Design the sequence.
């Protein structure tokens, strides 16, 4: 059992390292191609920090471990919003822009509700009495994701957000080094993903606990490390918008791209995913909107951050209690 925990930690380390150098290499290539910082942040950084979740969930779908594939995304989104955004807001109150209020936050809520709508058996594509995320639903989610990315590119070209600080100088690499970073990052993600899924499954079986519990706690926390690191750095550098954008973007990517791809590969059973888990997922997305209109208006302030952390602690205690 100790060996499996060591393998699990090694898998997490490989995934986090792989995501980091993948983002760095991809960003270098994008900048040299003349792509704007906005689009780089939205697509490459957002998808890059979600790469660990993508690898874990897709590998889990291929191997038929639906509880890990879905639990990883649910847990990661809860970690992102309640823990990471909560910590970030306590360190640095985050200003909410008009774009955040009328587009980004509502999209995050709508995508979360769509997943729950599909997952609890309310979809027209669902077999009565059997809760699953079907291939048809996965394809629908991928199509919505494509429209979301296209709209974001379109708006990103024409809308210039007010910068909170002047951008820091970016280290430039040779193109071959950047390509090597991309290849090496992808390799580390795949290998680390295999280690993580294998060890997590064996640990769950050995301890007699559900794969879902491992997924929404250990795996979700581990695969959310890139978002945590990005947001802490952003808070220290007083770039709250970068932190908020990373969280919202990652949440949308996790559901639409990751679960969409996983379900398109193999239908995902929702067995083992409780209504409390789904309820906390929806509630966490609504808390961001609520914070806009309470306390310090148009911001996620320190009180909001403390409330996020309190809800996260309560959910973790409930999850542990259900063992």
Sequence:
């Amino acid at each position: 059992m100790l060996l499996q925990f060591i393998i699990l930690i090694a898998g997490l380390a490989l995934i986090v390292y792989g995501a980091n150098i993948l983002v760095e290499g991809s960003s270098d290539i994008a900048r040299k191609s003349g792509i704007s910082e906005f689009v780089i942040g939205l697509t490459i950084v957002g998808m890059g920090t979600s790469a660990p979740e993508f690898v874990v969930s897709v590998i889990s779908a291929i191997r038929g471990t639906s509880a890990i594939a879905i639990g990883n995304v649910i847990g990661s989104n809860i970690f992102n919003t309640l823990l990471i955004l909560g910590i970030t807001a306590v360190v640095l109150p985050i200003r909410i822009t008009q774009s955040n209020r009328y587009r980004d936050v509502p999209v995050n809520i709508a995508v979360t509700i769509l997943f729950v709508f599909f997952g609890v058996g309310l979809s027209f594509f669902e077999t009565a009495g059997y809760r699953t995320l079907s291939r048809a639903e996965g394809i629908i989610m991928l199509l919505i994701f494509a429209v979301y990315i296209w709209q974001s590119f379109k708006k990103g070209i024409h809308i210039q957000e007010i910068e909170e600080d002047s951008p820091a100088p970016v280290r430039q690499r040779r193109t071959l080094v950047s390509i090597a970073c991309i290849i090496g990052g992808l390799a580390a993600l795949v290998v680390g993903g295999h280690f993580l899924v294998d060890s997590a499954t064996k640990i769950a079986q050995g301890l007699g606990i559900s794969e879902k519990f491992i997924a929404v706690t250990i795996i979700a926390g581990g695969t959310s490390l890139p978002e945590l690191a990005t947001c802490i750095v952003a808070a220290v550098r007083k770039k709250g918008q970068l932190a908020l954008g990373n969280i919202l973007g990652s949440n949308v990517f996790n559901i639409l791209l990751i679960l969409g791809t996983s379900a398109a590969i193999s239908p995902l059973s929702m067995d083992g995913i409780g209504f409390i888990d789904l309820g906390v997922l929806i509630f966490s997305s609504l808390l961001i909107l609520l914070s806009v209109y309470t306390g310090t208006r148009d911001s996620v302030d320190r009180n909001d951050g403390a409330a996020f952390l309190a809800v996260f602690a309560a959910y973790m205690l409930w999850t542990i209690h259900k063992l």
